[in-house]
Amino acid sequence: MIQLSRWKITLVALSLVLGLFLAYPSVLSPAQREALPSWLPSNGLNLGLDLQGGSYLLLEVDVPEMREKRISNLMEDVRVSLREDQVNITGMQREAGGVVVTVAEGAAYDTAFNTLRTMAQQGVGPTGQPDRVATKLGGGRIRYAFTDAALASMGATAVDQSIEVVRRRLDSSGTKEIAITRQGADRIVIQAPGQSDPAELERLVGRTAQLTFQMVDTSPTGLNDALAGRVPPDAQLLVDDMGTPYLVKRRILVSGENLTRAGIGTDQNNRPAIDFQFDSQGARRFGEATAQNLGKPFAIILDDKVISAPTIQSAITGGRGQITGNFTIASASELVNLLNGGALPAPLKVEERRVVTAELGADAVAAGALSTALGFVVIVVFMILAYGFLFGGISVIGLVLNGILIVAAMSLTQATLTLPGIAGLILTFAVAVDANVLIYERMRDEARQGRSVVASMDAGFNRAMGTIIDANLTTLVAAIIMFMFGAGPVRGFAWTLTIGVFTSVFSSVLTAQVLLGYWLKIAKPKKLPIAE
């Protein structure tokens, strides 16, 4: 195991070069990093809010507006469903939590009630029970509304969903340590390290990203009447980015809830476009809608603004399509990120925004740097006193390589370093030295039993590896659990520790093998120095 192998030498050399290549930007200032050539990496270490400051946002989930929108959609579903069943509605009155429909007595009344009861049974809430109910009130009136339990759960569900959507938009990898926490019943706190403009953060998280596909009203006088203020009850007047008005049917054919993937593509003129794909339910509904409306335009709407309104040329049954418009690469990328992150269930209102300064962070950085340096010096002194300049120095070289690889890996993944992350960094140094201590002590025991230098060193690496792997494996499992179930600084600590497990084993074992192999080849010692 102590023999020099070409692949080991090559791997150590490449790791050193690659580590320096990726870690180098971290020692430069932001201005210097921006001046680097495009072929060089320019990502340095991301410092957390506690080290470099950032932006703070306090948001309130607009639950009442979400409830109003849900009730409006419920009314439109009632209107369309009864019309399809050829039930003539003589009156429709909105009320808290639902709607009261008035129809003619007799067969129409029974048909309407059966239709609404079936719709209520199909609507399932978070508990698995129907979230709507249809009730006969007499006199041709039927109440169709959300249950009290459904109305009560809307607020909590909306906040939980909003937190998850915001997290996916801002930190899809989970390593940037953007803290997103719940405050009270309907508020969300966002702390974004390194983000100096809260307004930009607000713009990104505040878009509801509600994507819908709705038919355009093509009646001869419909648009003119709507522009004159006479908008039909089953339609709404919307505009596109150029201010062009469209009269759009309120009924939603397919929504972004059925979207499984969005990506950047190009249209037939080689301009940026959005490619999308629906799930099986969305593909079926989209295929049926396009087959029934050949030759008619339909509107693609994002947050109540028409993106485009193409004419249906043929039935689209594959569940795939493309959104074209006046996109740039930047706007298309942002829209794809929003669509893949999901739509906010309710609008977010900004209650407070502020920039967090890094004055305290500067002290934390200084204290962290000092503690890391002191820990490193103590480790160096201990290893040299315990194992001499040769073996102790090899351990120190491994530690230096370990530090370079950790910085390189964190820069590459754009993980955020915070005070807990610094603690994880120091812990990985201790773990790396522990591996060297296990190897050296095993070598010393073998040498004292009269074995040769080569046999002692080979046994040291072979017999200590089991203990090293066991120790690091348990650390890795703990780090993975913390990363999966933790949030914010806990995940940052876990991520730093995970990187350190791999780099410490590599630097303490493989680097020591290569350097000690060279020493054996050149010095050809008769006695193991650390056995004395």
UniProtKB/TrEMBL annotation:
Domain SecDF P1 head subdomain: 240-346
Record flagged with keyword Cell membrane: yes
Compartments reported by the entry: Cell membrane
Main subcellular localisation: membrane
Ranges where the Protein translocase subunit SecDF P1 domain occurs: 159-217
Transmembrane segments: 364-387, 394-413, 419-440, 461-487, 493-520
Record key words, sorted: Cell membrane, Membrane, Protein transport, Translocation, Transmembrane, Transmembrane helix, Transport
Membrane topology: Multi-pass membrane protein
Span of domain Protein export membrane protein SecD/SecF C-terminal: 351-519
Domain of life, per lineage: Bacteria
Xref: Pfam families: Sec_GG, SecD_1st, SecD_SecF_C, SecDF_P1_head
Database matches in SUPFAM superfamilies: Multidrug efflux transporter AcrB transmembrane domain (SSF82866)
InterPro entries with a match to the protein in the record: SecD, SecD/SecF_arch_bac, SecD/SecF_CS, SecD_1st, SecD_SecF_C, SecD_SecF_C_bact, SecDF_P1_head
The keyword Zinc belongs to this UniProt entry's keyword annotation: no
NCBIfam families tied to this protein: 2A0604s01 (TIGR00916), secD (TIGR01129)
Complex and partners: Forms a complex with SecF. Part of the essential Sec protein translocation apparatus which comprises SecA, SecYEG and auxiliary proteins SecDF-YajC and YidC.
Function, in words: Part of the Sec protein translocase complex. Interacts with the SecYEG preprotein conducting channel. SecDF uses the proton motive force (PMF) to complete protein translocation after the ATP-dependent function of SecA.
Family that this chain belongs to: Belongs to the SecD/SecF family. SecD subfamily.
Protein name: Protein translocase subunit SecD
The organism of origin for this protein: Brevundimonas olei
